[in-house]
Specification:
two-stranded parallel sheet; three-stranded antiparallel sheet; 4 helices
Length: 110
């Protein structure tokens, strides 16, 4: 999703280098709570952690790595340490509570 979004932004807005952009990864489910299938090891091995026979996926790490591959400076990438599943009862998490509430993400060009 990250790579496709950046490609669309570059194409539609004529963006060149991403070196001056700052990215903030919003709160999301984190590796502590995001158990996934073993198939994740095939395409996102570096962002997966195995505990026993369970596989957990680290979304912020995955997004961070994608942004760096796209040319974003690591100094311009920030993320929330809050896990939407276990950190706060005020953040919606479908996996934790089956809520229909959602969070929003946005792109801003000053």
């Amino acid at each position: 999703i990250v790579t496709k979004t950046i490609e669309i932004l570059k194409s539609n807005l004529g963006l060149g280098s991403l070196k001056d952009f700052v990215f903030f990864i919003m709160p999301c489910i984190h590796v502590c709570c995001y158990e996934v299938g073993k198939e994740f090891l095939e395409w996102a091995k570096d962002s997966c952690y195995v505990k026993g026979d369970k596989v957990f996926f680290d979304i912020p790490k995955f997004i961070n790595d994608e942004l760096i591959k796209l040319g974003v400076s690591e100094d311009n990438i920030f993320y929330s340490p809050l896990c939407t599943s276990c950190s706060s009862p005020n953040l919606p998490s479908y996996r934790a509570t089956k809520t229909e509430e959602r969070m929003i993400s946005f792109v801003w060009n000053d």
